[in-house]
Amino acid sequence: MKRALMAAAALTALSPLGAAAAERTLTISVYAFAQDDFKALVYDPFEAQCGCKLVVETGNSVERLAKMEANKANPVVDLAAVSMADALAASRAGLIDKIDTAKLTNFSKLYDVAKDPNGDGMSVGYTFYATSIAYRSDKMKIESWADLLKPEYVGHVAFPNVTTNQGPPALHMLGLALGKDTPDLKGPIEALGEKKDDIVTFYEKSSQLVQLMQQEEIWAAPIGRFSWAGFTKLDVPVAWATPREGQTGGMNVLVLTKGSKNQDLALQFMDFWLSTDTQTKLAEKLIDSPANSEVKLSEAAANNLTYGEETAKSLKLIPSAIALDNRAGWLKTWNEKVGQ
């Protein structure tokens, strides 16, 4: 009888039902962007390596953070990809845990700016991007962010709305150029307000800019580097500005949900995402600029991404605390001076 029970137990362990019961599951929360490519380059290879199942939830930041908050007592998500500022918001809300970077074999390979973006040990950067000015090099010369407001140029400029990801960073750099660099962004918003009737559009989607430039309705616009590829395909000369005040940008990070029962597996996945091989594949597909400093890219990929140590060091990112503490004020001032 004893032997029969042991044999039955062994058969159960080998059966599909037993294997399914033993299979580990990792749930991640990510942006909806390029999910087919992420599946092929990140998710499927990781599942093959770990022998686990990956459950992927997508959505915008507001929706995904709200779900984490709603399930705070019994977390559903194990790992999330969010912006720097959203990571700090999640930290303030007690939704994420400190990352044990000693368990990340690829941590030392990251650019310094990506190792601890918020200075609290609660997030690790996996990609960043530069924000500068795309401009018609045959029509104008951009040496400063303030050049956008020159009388001879301002009637051919598109500027990002303050509600977009590019809005506050571009305002931050414009403020530096104007000598009005304060966290409330009041100076640059007021300067734009004075020129609001001249500016072609305060855009909300960068996808509309390529056509506007092709049609010569605009000559210049602040954009994120991830939007640059479309401009390079135009049959008019377009350049990427390197203003004397520098470039700004943004960073996306990975965080661990507080109370997750799968943190070791989540750390394995985080390490896989940060690996030189994975980051190279994502970069060559022009999906993400690499945060891993060991990544070597083809010239074509490098020209369309935010790439290289000098670029990483030069980015003047808005500190997350400033972004979180001033968002409501930025919108209020914008609505008063520029309009909705």
From TrEMBL:
Top-level lineage group: Bacteria
The organism's taxonomic lineage, starting at the top: Bacteria, Pseudomonadati, Pseudomonadota, Alphaproteobacteria, Hyphomicrobiales
Signal peptide: 1-21
Protein name: ABC transporter substrate-binding protein
Pfam families registered for this protein in UniProt: SBP_bac_8
Record keywords: Periplasm, Signal
Organism per entry: Rhizobium bangladeshense
